[in-house]
């Protein structure tokens, strides 16, 4: 696990300058790999190229130093991530006559590429971002894994191509900070995050998951290609019993494949279905007691540590529990928010940072339950297809408009939670008589109309999802598989994985997600949808696969999620800073927001007359980025 950086510039630079630039980029991501670094650089009459990495040593501690070269030194790789099937791939290559000089997964990628070219990228089971410079072809390849677990940003203009694991490295090395992207801004205020291929900056993009860049150096031409083609899965005619057995085996095998490590390893254990299953499987697959880690909250409304303690006792783990309150977080809020390098308003990043921080004092690697909801259908929003169809069948659209109008007052709340009123209001706002409801239900920040109220017309874009709807062919998603596919491309890549990667890597901790296994994803896509959600029972097949391993009904218990009371904090420890962000002269100078609307939104929240937690938190996080990163006021 590490971070990578690199650039090609079409002018000759000295070796000293190339190294200096790479050191600058590397120093900014020191937290991603504090164990060692490595730099490759080369210049000729046409261009200069440099690639670098920071390494967190997990596998092959002694000989895995990067960059790694082919035997003739004409191909070089820098790599961020883990390849979980590298031993199997290596064995096949050895049978084909390939020799190795290290025991690292990085060298396996390189040798596989030498043997099979870009087609070899399909063979990789793991989380990764890597770049390969092939002098024989005069080409560069930059690659990102199937789910997008590892980040990769890039910037191209007429004279250069720059790529990096984190935005900050690119921003530091280019001549001028780009303008704010209207598309990125609108996506952010709809979703509370910005999914690939966009960023908050014009001209800087995220490489999409399951894609690679092919850069023809001689032509200065860039093409973006899929690694694995998107295919419509063929439904299996399989009994529920057999499918349940298959799921159990696939999950167990994935957990064990992701437990390969030459350093201490543990699990995040929240007490929910996903982390409990992962922890159980790991405990059954190793000879010694495993280490589990969880956090609880002094605020009883957010604390669910009793569930994690029950599971820890069941599997006989060395359980580490940390009880926190706002005082544990308030000193870290600034660093956590700014480390995302662009606006990001998922408040669960705060406790994820803390559990990563605490865990990193004991182990270097933690398995998580991330991806379980996307793979098995575990979100309340996955009910939305059924709800929308039932609602629009019985309620005329004219009456629905009346409901929407009255709900503004009837469902108003002044409490910082996502209780029944909040959920009912979201459902009403997401109902769509034309079938586009799912794009509204994933919009955790604002509806399109609400975005137009808070930002100025010259910044506003109409249907910000149009490109995605066309790309996925899902303008009007109908099935659970449609919803899960949108989740994979949008919320998983743009939110969940970003949150875990940045907060864990800020603490030099590697997180692995066994549910994010392409084999498992492909398999669940072939199952009848009622195997995943039966009636109102989410993740039905996963729970059935493991129910005999837990106390009766334990896997059916509801879990509130990884929330923190940011709405209250905005009224207390963050109030002075927030009020500074809505000073009229400051807003007018900024020129992005409708001044009166945003002031009213924030003041209603601060006065307690209306809970606007998630809208105000999104505004707060944007302003934190704007004034501390974008203009460095």
UniProtKB/TrEMBL annotation:
Q: Which UniProt keywords apply?
A: ATP-binding, Glutamine amidotransferase, Ligase, Nucleotide-binding
Q: In which pathway does it act?
A: Amino-acid biosynthesis; L-asparagine biosynthesis; L-asparagine from L-aspartate (L-Gln route): step 1/1
The reaction(s) annotated as catalysed by this protein in its Swiss-Prot or TrEMBL entry are: L-aspartate + L-glutamine + ATP + H2O = L-asparagine + L-glutamate + AMP + diphosphate + H(+)
Residue ranges of the Glutamine amidotransferase type-2 domain?
Answer: 2-218
Which superkingdom, per the lineage? Bacteria
Q: Which family does it belong to?
A: Belongs to the asparagine synthetase family.
Write the protein's name: asparagine synthase (glutamine-hydrolyzing)
Its taxonomic path starts at: Bacteria, Pseudomonadati, Bacteroidota, Flavobacteriia, Flavobacteriales
């Amino acid at each position: 696990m590490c971070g990578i950086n690199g650039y090609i510039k079409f002018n000759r630079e000295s070796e000293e300058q190339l190294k200096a630039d790479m050191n600058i980029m590397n120093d900014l991501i020191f937290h991603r790999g504090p164990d060692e670094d490595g730099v490759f650089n080369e210049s000729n009459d046409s261009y200069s190229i440099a690639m670098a990495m920071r390494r967190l040593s997990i596998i092959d501690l002694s000989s895995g130093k990067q960059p790694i070269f082919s035997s003739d030194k004409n191909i070089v790789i820098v790599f961020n991530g883990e390849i979980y099937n590298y031993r199997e791939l290596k064995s096949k290559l050895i049978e084909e006559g390939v020799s190795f000089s290290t025991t690292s997964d990085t060298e396996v990628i390189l040798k596989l590429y030498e043997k099979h070219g870009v087609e070899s990228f399909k063979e990789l089971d793991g989380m990764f971002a890597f770049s390969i410079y092939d002098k024989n072809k005069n080409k560069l390849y930059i690659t990102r894994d199937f789910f997008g677990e590892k980040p990769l940003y890039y910037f191209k203009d007429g004279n250069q191509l720059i790529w990096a694991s984190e935005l900050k490295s690119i921003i530091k090395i280019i001549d001028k900070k780009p303008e704010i992207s209207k598309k990125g801004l609108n996506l952010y205020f709809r979703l509370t995050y910005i999914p690939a291929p966009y960023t908050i900056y014009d001209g800087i993009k995220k490489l999409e998951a399951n894609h690679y860049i092919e850069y023809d150096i001689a032509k200065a031409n860039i093409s973006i290609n899929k690694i694995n083609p998107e295919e419509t899965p063929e439904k299996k005619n399989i009994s529920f019993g057999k499918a349940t057995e298959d799921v159990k085996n696939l999950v167990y095998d994935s957990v064990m494949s992701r437990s390969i490590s030459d350093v201490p390893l543990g699990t995040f254990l929240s007490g929910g279905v996903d982390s409990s299953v992962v922890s159980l499987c790991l405990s059954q697959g190793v000879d010694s007691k495993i280490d589990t880690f969880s956090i609880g909250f002094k605020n009883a409304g957010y604390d669910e540590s009793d569930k994690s303690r029950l599971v820890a006792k069941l599997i006989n783990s060395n359980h580490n529990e940390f009880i926190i309150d706002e005082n544990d977080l308030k000193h870290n809020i600034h660093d956590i928010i700014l480390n995302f390098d662009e606006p990001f308003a998922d408040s669960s990043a705060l406790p994820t940072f803390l559990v990563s921080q605490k865990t990193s004092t004991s182990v270097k690697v933690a398995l998580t339950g991330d991806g379980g909801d996307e793979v098995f259908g575990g979100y309340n929003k996955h009910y939305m297809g059924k709800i929308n169809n039932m609602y629009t069948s019985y309620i005329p659209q004219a009456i629905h408009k009346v409901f929407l109008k009255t709900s503004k007052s009837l469902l108003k709340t002044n409490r910082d939670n996502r209780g029944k009123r909040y959920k009912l209001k979201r459902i009403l706002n997401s109902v769509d008589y034309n079938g586009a409801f799912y794009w509204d239900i994933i919009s955790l920040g604002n509806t399109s109309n609400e975005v137009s109220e808070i930002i100025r017309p010259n910044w506003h874009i109409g249907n910000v999802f149009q490109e995605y709807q066309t790309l996925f062919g899902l303008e009007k998603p109908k099935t659970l598989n449609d919803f899960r596919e949108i989740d994979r491309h949008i919320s998983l890549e743009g939110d969940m994985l970003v949150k875990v990667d940045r907060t864990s890597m800020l603490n030099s901790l590697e997180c692995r997600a066994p549910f994010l296994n392409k084999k498992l994803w492909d398999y669940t896509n072939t199952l009848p949808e009622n195997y995943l959600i039966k009636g109102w029972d989410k993740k039905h097949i996963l729970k059935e696969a493991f129910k005999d391993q837990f106390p009766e009904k334990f896997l059916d218990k509801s879990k509130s999620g990884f929330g923190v009371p940011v709405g209250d904090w905005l009224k207390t420890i963050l109030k002075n800073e927030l009020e500074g962000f809505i000073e009229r002269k400051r807003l007018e100078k900024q020129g992005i927001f409708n001044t009166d609307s945003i002031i009213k939104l924030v003041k209603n929240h601060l006065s307690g007359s209306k809970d606007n937690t998630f809208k105000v938190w999104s505004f707060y996080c944007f302003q934190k980025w704007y004034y501390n990163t974008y203009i460095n006021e």
